[in-house]
Design brief:
It comes from Varanus komodoensis (Komodo dragon). Belongs to the ATP-dependent AMP-binding enzyme family. Keywords: Ligase. By secondary structure, this protein is α+β, with helices and mostly antiparallel strands. It is 26% helix and 20% strand. It has 3 helices and 4 strands; from the N terminus they run βαβαββα. The longest helix is centred in the first third of the chain and has 11 residues, at 14-24. It is globular, with a radius of gyration of 14 Å.
Length: 95
């Protein structure tokens, strides 16, 4: 999973991110999930707070942030829905 904070006034483009990831990363290194956050928390020593993100996982019922899922067939990132989440958990959708 990748967690992204957009610059003010920027808009997230699923197609552009997919193209960039496909061009520069091997298949095994591509993030299957992308989380768009308003702010990424840091500690007093400016390290990113990852424990809470790890505990929340990628369940759209738990996370309030926008989540996207890598869809190689459509060659884009698509919004992660409850149906997609359940398909992944039931192993009917392979990553």
């Amino acid at each position: 999973m990748a967690s992204i904070q957009l610059r003010e006034g920027s808009k997230f483009s699923e197609e552009i991110l997919y193209k960039h990831v496909a061009d520069y990363l091997p298949t095994y290194a591509r993030p299957h999930f992308v989380r768009i956050q308003d702010a990424i928390g840091t500690t007093g020593t400016f390290k990113y707070k990852k424990v809470q993100l790890r505990e929340e996982g990628f369940n759209p019922a738990v996370i309030r942030d926008t989540l996207y899922f890598l869809d190689d067939k459509a060659k884009t990132y698509i919004p992660l829905t409850e149906d997609i989440y359940n398909s992944i958990c039931n192993n009917s959708l392979k990553l």
